[in-house]
Amino acid sequence: MTEEKKFSKKGYLTQTGEGELLLVNEKGVAYLVNESIVAIWDRFEGRTMEEVIQEVAEISELSPDELREPIRELVDALVKAELLV
Predict the structure, then answer these.
(1) Helix-then-strand count for the chain, H and E
(2) 29-56 b/e with 16+ CB inside 10 Å = b?
(3) What is the value of pTM for the model shown?
(4) What SS3 class is residue 10?
(5) Max Cα distance, the chain (Å)
(6) Number of domains into which the chain is organized
(7) Which of 31, 35, 37, 56 is at 20 to 30 A from 67, Cα to Cα?
(8) What is the spatial distance between Cα 52 and Cα 55, in angstroms, rounded to a whole number?
C-alpha cells in the first residue's frame, strides 16, 4: 500500500439501539467501532493516508510519527472490511 494512494469511504455509519457505533459495508456486514475510528474513516474521501495522518496530528496532541503506524493498521483493517477502497 503506497502512501500516495487516495482512498474513498465505502459503506455507512449507523448506531445500535444502545447507541453503539457501527460501520456497515456494502454487503451489509457491520463492524462495531468507536468515535475515533469514525473520525479517521470520515476523513478518507479522495485523500491519502499521509494527508489524513497530518490532519489528525494537527487536531490531536500526537505527532505524525506517533500516528503513522496506528492509522496504517486501521486503514488495512478498513480495506479488509471493505469500508475503504
Answers:
(1) 3, 5
(2) ebbebeeebeebbebbeebebebbbeeb
(3) 0.91
(4) coil
(5) 38
(6) 1
(7) 31
(8) 5
